[in-house]
């Protein structure tokens, strides 16, 4: 019985981590700052590619 509970808690933890990173990246972009690479990685975004957006 403990396995499903651990699975639910792990899934909830992952959701909180992804949501937190999305909020952090959003706040940084809105504030004109570069988001932390850690948050971009959590969202599956390459930090170098993100930073090159808008530069040609």
Which helices and strands occur, and which strands form pairs?
Layout: H1 2-30, H2 37-42, H3 47-51
Shape: elongated
Radius of gyration: 15 Å
Percentage of residues in strands: under 5%
The DSSP helix count reads 3
Mean pLDDT: 90
Poorly predicted runs: none
| Relative helix content | over 70%
- Largest sheet, strands/sense/barrel: none
The number of distinct β-strands equals 0
Distance between the termini: 55 Å
Structural class: mainly alpha
Order of helices and strands: HHH
Architecture overview:
The protein is 71% helix and 0% strand. By secondary structure, it is an all-alpha fold. The radius of gyration is 15 Å and the shape is elongated. The N and C termini lie far apart (55 Å). The model has no long low-confidence stretch (mean pLDDT 90).
Structural descriptors:
single chain; about 55 residues; mainly alpha; 3 helices; about 70% helix
Summarize the structure.
Helices cover 71% and strands 0% of the residues.
């Amino acid at each position: 019985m403990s396995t499903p509970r651990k699975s639910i808690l792990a899934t909830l933890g992952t959701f909180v981590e992804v949501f937190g990173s999305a909020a952090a990246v959003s706040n940084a972009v809105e504030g004109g700052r570069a988001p932390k690479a850690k948050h971009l990685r959590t969202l599956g975004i390459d930090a170098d590619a993100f930073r090159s957006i808008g530069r040609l």
